[in-house]
Amino acid sequence: LLSDKGIAERYGGVGNQFAVTQIVGFFILLPILFVTEGAMLPTFFEKLKTDSSLQFNLVMSGLCFYIYNELATYTLKVTGAVTASVANTAKRVIVMVYMAAVTGKVLTNEQKMGSAIAICGVLLYSLIDDLLKGKKKAKSS
């Protein structure tokens, strides 16, 4: 979106673009919130007033979500869509394998196969340029 000069100047950067999309998304989802959860809102607000752990967890989860997505937006700008997508896939696999190792939970066959495919894909993506350069040199010689 920021490739258009007029839009880039109005937003002033990727951070502002991300903030605007978050605010617009919030307002778009408000009607859905009221339709699906409207009856429970008074109960939620009452609990929110009295439960300090709920207040803390709500603020922290929102803050962490915002920071994570802000960094993802900056990363996307710096690296490009394909690299960011591959890195995101690798991150998910690393987290899943790490948590299995830490908790001692055995991965299912599907999880093992998915992790292996994702790791091989990330490895291939990182090595593909070197592999193709080697083939081009061999053809030109």
Give descriptors for this structure.
single chain, 141 residues, mainly alpha, 6 helices, flat
Structure description:
It is built from six helices and no strands. With 141 residues, it is mainly α. The radius of gyration is 22 Å and the shape is flat. The two termini are 43 Å apart. The mean pLDDT is 83. Helix content is 88%, strand content 0%.
CA-based gyration radius: 22 Å
Which spans have pLDDT < 50 for at least 5 consecutive residues?
none
Spatial gap, N to C terminus: 43 Å
Strand content of the residues, in percent? under 5%
Shape estimate: flat
SSE order: HHHHHH
Number of strand elements: 0
The residue fraction in helices comes out at over 70%
**SS element count, helices:** 6
Structural class: mainly alpha
The overall pLDDT, averaged over residues, is 83
Sheet having the most strands: none
